[in-house]
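The instructor's notes for this session suggest beginning with a concrete chain rather than abstract definitions. Hand out the sequence below and ask the class to guess, before any prediction is shown, which regions might be ordered.
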Amino acid sequence: MSSILLVHRGALGDFLMAWPSMLALCGHFADRSVFWAGAGDRVPWLRPLGVEPCSPEMRRGLDALFLREQWPAELGDARVFWFVLDSPPPVPAHSRLHVLRGLSGFGSGSTLSPCEAYAQGLRELGIAWKPGWPDVWRELFGSWKSGQERAEDREILLFPGAGHPAKQWPLVQFFELARWLQGQGRSVRFVLGPAERDRGMEIAECPVICPESLEVLRELLLSARLVVGNDSGPMHLAGMLGVPGLALFGPALEAQWGPVGLRIIGLDLACRPCTRTGRIACADPRCLREISQVTVRREVAALLAR
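After discussion, reveal the predicted structure:
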C-alpha cells in the first residue's frame, strides 16, 4: 500500500461531520501519501493534514470502479476510504475499498450522529479516533474569541437558508427577528449561499452578504457576535469554530444532526423527526413553522447576555 485516497461527495455539513475521521485517517497513515477525491473547495481544510488533491489518473481510476469488476490499474495499490451517508456507492466490493457509512444503524431508530458513526466504522477497522479533534480544528482554522474588540460591536449573522426548503424557518420570522435585534441597537446581516440565490431568495430589509468562497465564510463567522440559522452546513462550520449560535431544527433530529457547540431549538412534536437519513418528503414542516418568535428571542437574548 503506497497511498490513501479519501472520497466524499456530499454537502458541506456532511463533509464537516466526516472531517474528524479524516483527521484520524491522516494520523493513522502518517507514513503514507494521502489524496482527496471530492469538491475542490474542501482542499484548504485537508491540506494542513498533509492531504493533496488526487491526480487526474487516480480520479479516472475511481470512476472506473463503477465500470469494472477488477481493481483499476490507475489506483495501483491505493487504499480507498469512501464516506457516504446511507447508500454505498454502486461499485464492486474490493479488499482495498472501505465504505464508511454515516448513518450506520439508522433503521433501528439509532440517534448516532454521522460523526460518531464514521468514528465507529474506523474503530471496526482498528483505526483509533481522536476525541480531541475540535481543538485540532480550531488550532488549524481559527477559534472565535470575544477579546480585542468589543463583542457588542460585531454583527449578528442570520442564515435563513438550508439544503432543503423544508428545513427553513419561515423567512418572515427571520425578518421579525432582525427588526427586533436592530431595535436593540444590534448590527444584523443576512448571509445567503448558492442554494438561496438559485431559489431566488431576496432580502431587501437588511444588509446581505453572499460569501464568494468557504474561506470568506470562515472569516465572516470568526468576526461575528453570534449566528442564528437553520440546520445547514454554515451552522456546522460556526460550531466547529466555536462561534456562539442558535440552530433551528425541524424534520431532522438535533441529537443526530446537531452542530457541535451550538444551542439548538427543536419542537417536541409527534411527527418529528420525519427523517433520519436526510431525505425529506414533508410538504408542511409545521415543526419549523411553529417555532415561535418568543422562543427564538429568548435563546438569542441568553446568548447575547453570556
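Then share the key points. The chain has a mean pLDDT of 91. The first helix runs from residue 12 to 28.
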